[in-house]
Design brief:
Length: 264
């Protein structure tokens, strides 16, 4: 049985387009609807109560549009999913679990995690990774401002390079890890800058792992799409231009429509 209802993607801003890009590339027959809350970016510096409130509004916005599954392209939101969002009838998929599964499969002995303040302080990555392998060394680095700087859209700014440099120095001083999880979907947008600073590090992009994970879920549930000309719509509380610039920067397929909304 085929199901051509849309897959929803939510994020606090443009970072989730790194997930949308993988969906469009690897799941070309799926219709996708994206909701980015640029007005309230970053979520990673907010309190859990506010993150829950904003997330519930985003999820309900997409459910009203009859999505069949929601991929949470935000590590901060993913870190509270199990506490607040288990009572929905459609799958709501974390971006954290797929990448912890990847680390476990690779049998890594140590791994770094760079993420927002909230994600790091929640210790969600550490808990999930150490549940799978208690001997695994997890080295965490909180990056409170990086997502906000990237979300501005000036990808060539010196501030981005300087901020990445500071956090890479910090994490490598703690332990000489060879693999680092980019635990915020904004970070892969400037992946080349990470690589320029640390060319010998394997940077793990959770967007790819989440897409494979979602593909497995929809196949198991029998709800895969079959659209030859699938659609990609974007809703944002920010500006259309930010998304047009990001789509161009990521060299991904253009959106069919981008809607600016005051709130959701």
């Amino acid at each position: 049985m085929k199901d051509n209802r849309k897959i929803g993607i939510i994020d606090s801003g443009v970072g989730g387009l790194t997930v949308a890009k993988e969906f469009r590339r690897l799941l070309p027959k799926e219709n996708v609807i994206y909701l980015g809350d640029n007005k309230n970016v970053p979520y990673g510096n907010k309190k859990e109560e506010e993150i829950y409130y904003l997330t519930k509004k985003m999820i309900d916005f997409l459910i009203q549009r009859d999505v069949k599954l929601i991929a949470v392209a935000c590590n901060t939101i993913s870190s509270i999913l199990d506490r607040h969002f288990l009572d929905y009838t459609i799958p709501i998929v974390s971006i954290i679990k797929p990448v912890t599964d990847y680390v476990d499969k690779k049998r890594l002995k140590s791994v770094g995690v760079m993420a927002t303040k909230f994600t790091i302080e929640s210790k969600t990555y550490e808990k999930l990774l150490n549940e799978k392998d208690k001997s695994l060394t997890v080295v965490s680095e909180s990056c409170p401002t990086l997502a906000t700087i990237i979300d501005r859209g000036d990808y060539e700014s010196k501030e981005i390079m300087e901020t990445i440099n500071i956090h890479m120095d910090n994490i490598l001083r703690k332990t000489a890890v060879k693999d680092i999880i980019l635990g915020c979907t904004h970070y892969p947008i400037v992946l080349e800058k990470f690589k320029k600073i640390s060319p010998n590090i394997n940077f793990i992009n959770p967007a790819y792992e989440q897409t494979l994970y979602v593909d497995n879920i929809i196949k198991k549930l029998g709800i895969s799409g079959s659209e030859t000309n699938s659609t990609f719509e974007i809703f944002t509380t920010g500006k259309t231009g930010t998304y047009l610039d990001m789509i161009d920067s990521l060299s991904m397929k253009s959106a069919d429509r981008i809607y600016e909304i005051k709130e959701f």
